[in-house]
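To: structure subgroup
Subject: Chain for Friday's discussion

All,

I'm putting the inputs and outputs inline so they're searchable in the archive.
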Amino acid sequence: MNNRYRLLKLLGDGTFGRVVLAEDQISARQVAIKIIRDVKRYMENAKIEADILNDLRKADQHGKSGCALMYETFTHEQVYYCLVFEPLGQSLYDFLNANGFRGFWMQDIQSFAKQSMEALNFLHGHLHMTHTDLKPENILLQSTERSITAPFPREPDWLRRNSSSSSKSQSLGEYQRPINNRIKLIDFGNATYADEHHSSIINTRQYRGPEVLLALGWDERSDLWSIGCILMELYSGEQLFATHEELEHLAMMSRVIGPFPAWMLEKASPAVQERYFVRDSRGGWRLPWPERASSASSERHVREQRLLQEQVPLQHASLAEFCGALLMLEPQRRPSAAEALRHPFFTVRFED
Protein backbone atom coordinates (compact mmCIF):
# COMPACT_ATOMS: atom_id res chain seq x y z
CA MET A 1 0.00 0.00 0.00
CA ASN A 2 1.14 3.55 -0.83
CA ASN A 3 4.30 2.07 -2.40
CA ARG A 4 5.57 1.71 1.14
CA TYR A 5 3.62 -0.66 3.38
CA ARG A 6 3.72 -4.45 3.03
CA LEU A 7 0.65 -6.03 4.65
CA LEU A 8 1.37 -8.72 7.25
CA LYS A 9 -1.97 -9.68 8.80
CA LEU A 10 -5.48 -8.57 9.66
CA LEU A 11 -5.73 -7.19 13.21
CA GLY A 12 -9.47 -6.62 13.35
CA ASP A 13 -12.68 -5.53 11.63
CA GLY A 14 -15.06 -2.80 12.76
CA THR A 15 -18.07 -0.86 11.51
CA PHE A 16 -15.75 1.81 10.07
CA GLY A 17 -13.52 -0.65 8.18
CA ARG A 18 -10.54 -2.71 9.26
CA VAL A 19 -7.09 -2.52 10.86
CA VAL A 20 -4.10 -4.35 9.42
CA LEU A 21 -0.54 -4.86 10.59
CA ALA A 22 2.04 -3.82 8.01
CA GLU A 23 5.78 -3.33 7.62
CA ASP A 24 7.00 0.14 6.70
CA GLN A 25 9.62 -0.69 4.06
CA ILE A 26 11.33 2.69 4.49
CA SER A 27 11.83 2.66 8.26
CA ALA A 28 11.62 -1.18 8.63
CA ARG A 29 9.24 -0.73 11.58
CA GLN A 30 5.80 -2.29 11.97
CA VAL A 31 2.71 -0.08 11.78
CA ALA A 32 -1.05 -0.50 12.18
CA ILE A 33 -3.09 0.85 9.25
CA LYS A 34 -6.73 1.78 9.82
CA ILE A 35 -8.49 1.38 6.44
CA ILE A 36 -11.79 3.27 6.30
CA ARG A 37 -14.72 1.83 4.34
CA ASP A 38 -15.81 3.75 1.25
CA VAL A 39 -18.79 5.32 3.04
CA LYS A 40 -19.05 9.10 3.02
CA ARG A 41 -19.92 9.47 6.74
CA TYR A 42 -17.06 7.19 7.87
CA MET A 43 -14.58 8.98 5.60
CA GLU A 44 -15.61 12.42 6.90
CA ASN A 45 -15.32 11.26 10.52
CA ALA A 46 -11.91 9.70 9.85
CA LYS A 47 -10.62 12.97 8.35
CA ILE A 48 -11.84 14.90 11.42
CA GLU A 49 -10.04 12.38 13.67
CA ALA A 50 -6.89 12.64 11.53
CA ASP A 51 -6.85 16.44 12.00
CA ILE A 52 -7.08 15.97 15.78
CA LEU A 53 -4.37 13.28 15.72
CA ASN A 54 -2.10 15.63 13.76
CA ASP A 55 -2.57 18.24 16.50
CA LEU A 56 -1.71 15.59 19.11
CA ARG A 57 1.42 14.58 17.21
CA LYS A 58 2.63 18.18 16.93
CA ALA A 59 2.20 18.69 20.67
CA ASP A 60 3.69 15.27 21.53
CA GLN A 61 6.62 14.81 19.17
CA HIS A 62 8.34 12.23 21.40
CA GLY A 63 5.20 10.11 21.96
CA LYS A 64 5.20 10.55 25.75
CA SER A 65 1.62 11.85 26.25
CA GLY A 66 -0.09 8.47 26.60
CA CYS A 67 -2.20 9.12 23.47
CA ALA A 68 -1.99 7.02 20.31
CA LEU A 69 0.53 8.25 17.72
CA MET A 70 -0.57 8.64 14.10
CA TYR A 71 2.32 8.80 11.61
CA GLU A 72 0.55 9.79 8.39
CA THR A 73 -2.55 9.41 6.21
CA PHE A 74 -2.94 8.41 2.56
CA THR A 75 -5.64 7.34 0.12
CA HIS A 76 -5.28 3.82 -1.30
CA GLU A 77 -6.27 3.38 -4.97
CA GLN A 78 -8.00 6.79 -4.76
CA VAL A 79 -10.79 5.15 -2.77
CA TYR A 80 -9.81 4.04 0.74
CA TYR A 81 -8.74 6.64 3.30
CA CYS A 82 -6.01 5.18 5.53
CA LEU A 83 -4.50 6.28 8.84
CA VAL A 84 -1.09 4.89 9.85
CA PHE A 85 -0.49 4.34 13.58
CA GLU A 86 2.07 2.85 15.91
CA PRO A 87 1.06 -0.78 16.55
CA LEU A 88 -0.52 -1.37 19.99
CA GLY A 89 -1.70 -4.37 21.99
CA GLN A 90 -5.10 -5.49 23.28
CA SER A 91 -7.71 -3.14 24.69
CA LEU A 92 -8.30 -3.33 28.44
CA TYR A 93 -11.82 -4.58 27.65
CA ASP A 94 -10.52 -7.45 25.50
CA PHE A 95 -8.00 -8.33 28.20
CA LEU A 96 -10.76 -8.37 30.86
CA ASN A 97 -12.93 -10.48 28.60
CA ALA A 98 -10.14 -13.01 27.96
CA ASN A 99 -9.73 -13.31 31.74
CA GLY A 100 -13.40 -14.08 32.32
CA PHE A 101 -13.94 -10.54 33.68
CA ARG A 102 -11.88 -11.24 36.78
CA GLY A 103 -10.34 -7.78 37.03
CA PHE A 104 -6.70 -6.65 37.07
CA TRP A 105 -4.06 -6.70 39.78
CA MET A 106 -4.08 -3.59 42.00
CA GLN A 107 -0.52 -2.76 40.92
CA ASP A 108 -1.69 -2.63 37.30
CA ILE A 109 -4.84 -0.62 38.14
CA GLN A 110 -2.73 1.92 40.04
CA SER A 111 -0.42 2.24 37.02
CA PHE A 112 -3.37 2.55 34.61
CA ALA A 113 -4.85 5.27 36.84
CA LYS A 114 -1.62 7.27 36.90
CA GLN A 115 -1.05 6.99 33.16
CA SER A 116 -4.69 7.97 32.47
CA MET A 117 -4.31 11.10 34.59
CA GLU A 118 -1.05 11.97 32.82
CA ALA A 119 -2.71 11.55 29.41
CA LEU A 120 -5.71 13.65 30.49
CA ASN A 121 -3.41 16.30 31.93
CA PHE A 122 -1.84 16.53 28.46
CA LEU A 123 -5.22 16.67 26.67
CA HIS A 124 -6.93 19.03 29.11
CA GLY A 125 -4.00 21.16 30.19
CA HIS A 126 -2.02 21.52 26.95
CA LEU A 127 -4.59 21.07 24.20
CA HIS A 128 -7.77 22.18 26.06
CA MET A 129 -9.46 19.11 24.63
CA THR A 130 -11.97 16.63 26.09
CA HIS A 131 -11.75 13.03 24.81
CA THR A 132 -15.54 12.44 25.36
CA ASP A 133 -15.51 8.67 24.74
CA LEU A 134 -13.29 7.03 27.34
CA LYS A 135 -14.11 3.37 28.02
CA PRO A 136 -12.05 0.15 28.42
CA GLU A 137 -12.32 -0.48 24.66
CA ASN A 138 -10.52 2.82 23.99
CA ILE A 139 -7.56 2.17 26.29
CA LEU A 140 -4.99 -0.14 24.73
CA LEU A 141 -1.97 -1.89 26.19
CA GLN A 142 1.10 -0.41 24.55
CA SER A 143 2.94 -3.71 24.23
CA THR A 144 2.05 -6.40 21.70
CA GLU A 145 4.00 -8.98 23.76
CA ARG A 146 2.20 -12.04 25.07
CA SER A 147 0.75 -11.85 28.57
CA ILE A 148 2.00 -14.07 31.41
CA THR A 149 0.12 -16.64 33.48
CA ALA A 150 -0.31 -15.46 37.08
CA PRO A 151 -2.53 -16.11 40.10
CA PHE A 152 -5.57 -13.81 40.49
CA PRO A 153 -5.23 -12.29 44.00
CA ARG A 154 -8.99 -11.74 44.50
CA GLU A 155 -10.15 -15.13 43.18
CA PRO A 156 -12.10 -16.20 46.35
CA ASP A 157 -14.01 -12.91 46.51
CA TRP A 158 -14.70 -12.98 42.79
CA LEU A 159 -15.98 -16.57 42.91
CA ARG A 160 -18.22 -15.74 45.87
CA ARG A 161 -19.74 -12.77 44.00
CA ASN A 162 -20.28 -14.88 40.88
CA SER A 163 -21.43 -18.08 42.58
CA SER A 164 -24.91 -17.69 41.03
CA SER A 165 -23.36 -17.80 37.55
CA SER A 166 -21.95 -21.33 37.55
CA SER A 167 -21.32 -21.26 33.77
CA LYS A 168 -19.21 -18.12 34.22
CA SER A 169 -17.01 -19.62 36.94
CA GLN A 170 -16.73 -23.10 35.37
CA SER A 171 -15.45 -21.85 32.01
CA LEU A 172 -12.53 -19.91 33.48
CA GLY A 173 -9.14 -20.52 31.92
CA GLU A 174 -5.77 -19.61 33.37
CA TYR A 175 -5.55 -16.03 34.61
CA GLN A 176 -3.31 -13.78 32.50
CA ARG A 177 -1.48 -10.61 33.52
CA PRO A 178 0.01 -8.05 31.09
CA ILE A 179 3.76 -8.43 30.82
CA ASN A 180 3.92 -4.63 30.54
CA ASN A 181 1.24 -2.31 31.95
CA ARG A 182 1.95 0.75 29.77
CA ILE A 183 -1.23 2.02 28.07
CA LYS A 184 -2.35 4.47 25.37
CA LEU A 185 -5.67 6.25 24.81
CA ILE A 186 -7.18 5.81 21.35
CA ASP A 187 -10.23 6.90 19.30
CA PHE A 188 -10.20 10.68 19.15
CA GLY A 189 -13.00 10.91 16.58
CA ASN A 190 -15.32 12.68 19.02
CA ALA A 191 -12.68 14.69 20.90
CA THR A 192 -13.80 18.29 21.40
CA TYR A 193 -11.77 21.45 21.95
CA ALA A 194 -12.92 23.82 24.72
CA ASP A 195 -13.90 26.51 22.19
CA GLU A 196 -15.82 24.15 19.87
CA HIS A 197 -19.52 23.31 19.86
CA HIS A 198 -20.24 20.77 22.64
CA SER A 199 -22.69 18.01 21.63
CA SER A 200 -25.54 17.50 24.09
CA ILE A 201 -24.80 13.75 24.37
CA ILE A 202 -21.28 12.34 24.72
CA ASN A 203 -19.77 9.05 25.92
CA THR A 204 -21.01 5.50 25.80
CA ARG A 205 -23.88 5.42 28.28
CA GLN A 206 -22.23 3.50 31.12
CA TYR A 207 -19.37 6.04 31.31
CA ARG A 208 -21.55 9.17 30.90
CA GLY A 209 -21.39 11.75 33.69
CA PRO A 210 -24.44 13.11 35.56
CA GLU A 211 -23.96 16.59 34.09
CA VAL A 212 -24.52 15.08 30.63
CA LEU A 213 -27.58 13.09 31.72
CA LEU A 214 -29.09 16.22 33.27
CA ALA A 215 -28.16 18.43 30.26
CA LEU A 216 -26.27 20.85 32.52
CA GLY A 217 -23.44 21.35 30.03
CA TRP A 218 -20.07 19.61 30.32
CA ASP A 219 -16.34 20.26 30.11
CA GLU A 220 -13.10 18.27 30.41
CA ARG A 221 -14.05 17.02 33.89
CA SER A 222 -16.54 14.66 32.25
CA ASP A 223 -13.45 12.62 31.23
CA LEU A 224 -12.55 12.27 34.93
CA TRP A 225 -15.97 10.74 35.64
CA SER A 226 -15.42 8.20 32.84
CA ILE A 227 -12.03 7.17 34.25
CA GLY A 228 -13.57 6.70 37.72
CA CYS A 229 -16.12 4.30 36.20
CA ILE A 230 -13.41 2.50 34.22
CA LEU A 231 -11.06 1.95 37.19
CA MET A 232 -13.84 0.40 39.28
CA GLU A 233 -14.68 -1.87 36.34
CA LEU A 234 -11.04 -2.89 35.96
CA TYR A 235 -11.12 -3.83 39.65
CA SER A 236 -14.38 -5.80 39.83
CA GLY A 237 -14.65 -6.94 36.22
CA GLU A 238 -18.18 -5.48 36.06
CA GLN A 239 -19.43 -2.10 34.86
CA LEU A 240 -20.02 0.28 37.75
CA PHE A 241 -23.25 1.50 36.15
CA ALA A 242 -24.55 -1.45 34.13
CA THR A 243 -27.74 0.06 32.73
CA HIS A 244 -29.52 1.04 29.52
CA GLU A 245 -32.14 3.37 31.04
CA GLU A 246 -31.75 7.03 32.00
CA LEU A 247 -33.90 6.96 35.15
CA GLU A 248 -32.33 3.71 36.36
CA HIS A 249 -28.89 5.22 35.67
CA LEU A 250 -29.68 8.28 37.81
CA ALA A 251 -31.06 6.04 40.56
CA MET A 252 -27.88 3.92 40.49
CA MET A 253 -25.75 7.05 40.80
CA SER A 254 -27.76 8.11 43.85
CA ARG A 255 -27.32 4.66 45.37
CA VAL A 256 -23.57 4.29 44.67
CA ILE A 257 -22.37 7.90 45.08
CA GLY A 258 -25.09 9.61 47.14
CA PRO A 259 -28.15 11.83 46.60
CA PHE A 260 -28.06 14.53 43.93
CA PRO A 261 -27.60 18.08 45.22
CA ALA A 262 -30.84 20.06 44.88
CA TRP A 263 -29.19 22.64 42.59
CA MET A 264 -28.35 20.00 39.97
CA LEU A 265 -31.97 18.87 39.74
CA GLU A 266 -33.13 22.51 39.73
CA LYS A 267 -30.77 23.49 36.91
CA ALA A 268 -31.41 20.41 34.76
CA SER A 269 -33.00 21.17 31.40
CA PRO A 270 -36.82 21.50 31.42
CA ALA A 271 -37.06 18.45 29.13
CA VAL A 272 -35.06 16.32 31.62
CA GLN A 273 -37.10 17.63 34.57
CA GLU A 274 -40.37 16.83 32.84
CA ARG A 275 -39.26 13.37 31.80
CA TYR A 276 -37.39 12.09 34.85
CA PHE A 277 -38.28 14.15 37.96
CA VAL A 278 -41.33 14.95 40.08
CA ARG A 279 -41.99 17.72 42.57
CA ASP A 280 -41.61 16.88 46.25
CA SER A 281 -43.86 18.14 49.08
CA ARG A 282 -41.81 21.35 49.36
CA GLY A 283 -41.95 22.16 45.66
CA GLY A 284 -38.41 20.99 44.83
CA TRP A 285 -37.46 18.28 42.35
CA ARG A 286 -36.71 14.66 43.23
CA LEU A 287 -36.06 11.37 41.45
CA PRO A 288 -39.30 9.34 41.38
CA TRP A 289 -37.61 6.11 42.43
CA PRO A 290 -38.64 3.34 42.92
CA GLU A 291 -42.23 4.28 42.01
CA ARG A 292 -41.36 4.86 38.36
CA ALA A 293 -39.01 1.87 37.95
CA SER A 294 -39.67 0.22 34.58
CA SER A 295 -39.83 -3.25 36.16
CA ALA A 296 -39.37 -5.19 39.39
CA SER A 297 -35.99 -6.40 38.09
CA SER A 298 -34.87 -2.80 37.51
CA GLU A 299 -35.89 -1.86 41.04
CA ARG A 300 -34.02 -4.90 42.39
CA HIS A 301 -30.95 -4.10 40.27
CA VAL A 302 -30.70 -0.61 41.82
CA ARG A 303 -31.37 -1.92 45.33
CA GLU A 304 -28.48 -4.38 44.98
CA GLN A 305 -25.96 -1.59 44.32
CA ARG A 306 -23.52 -0.81 47.14
CA LEU A 307 -21.94 2.45 48.13
CA LEU A 308 -18.63 2.98 46.35
CA GLN A 309 -16.57 2.57 49.55
CA GLU A 310 -18.28 -0.78 50.24
CA GLN A 311 -17.27 -2.21 46.88
CA VAL A 312 -13.63 -2.79 47.89
CA PRO A 313 -12.06 -4.44 50.97
CA LEU A 314 -10.19 -2.33 53.53
CA GLN A 315 -6.74 -2.95 52.01
CA HIS A 316 -7.93 -1.36 48.75
CA ALA A 317 -9.88 1.53 50.31
CA SER A 318 -7.55 4.08 48.68
CA LEU A 319 -8.83 2.99 45.23
CA ALA A 320 -12.43 3.75 46.24
CA GLU A 321 -11.29 7.07 47.73
CA PHE A 322 -9.51 8.02 44.51
CA CYS A 323 -12.44 6.96 42.32
CA GLY A 324 -14.80 8.75 44.72
CA ALA A 325 -12.96 12.00 44.00
CA LEU A 326 -13.32 11.46 40.24
CA LEU A 327 -16.97 10.45 40.67
CA MET A 328 -18.18 13.57 42.46
CA LEU A 329 -21.70 14.25 41.16
CA GLU A 330 -20.91 17.97 40.96
CA PRO A 331 -18.30 18.36 38.19
CA GLN A 332 -16.64 21.40 39.79
CA ARG A 333 -15.82 19.31 42.86
CA ARG A 334 -13.83 16.77 40.83
CA PRO A 335 -10.08 17.34 40.76
CA SER A 336 -8.36 18.32 37.56
CA ALA A 337 -6.14 15.59 36.09
CA ALA A 338 -3.08 17.45 37.44
CA GLU A 339 -4.61 17.62 40.94
CA ALA A 340 -5.63 13.96 40.79
CA LEU A 341 -1.99 12.97 40.26
CA ARG A 342 -1.25 14.27 43.76
CA HIS A 343 -3.83 11.98 45.40
CA PRO A 344 -2.50 9.73 48.23
CA PHE A 345 -3.65 6.68 46.21
CA PHE A 346 -0.43 6.95 44.20
CA THR A 347 1.78 6.68 47.28
CA VAL A 348 0.29 3.34 48.43
CA ARG A 349 2.43 0.28 47.79
CA PHE A 350 0.30 -2.71 46.79
CA GLU A 351 1.50 -6.31 47.00
CA ASP A 352 -1.24 -7.61 44.70
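Points worth raising on Friday:
The chain is about 35% helix and 15% strand.
The mean pLDDT is 95.

D.
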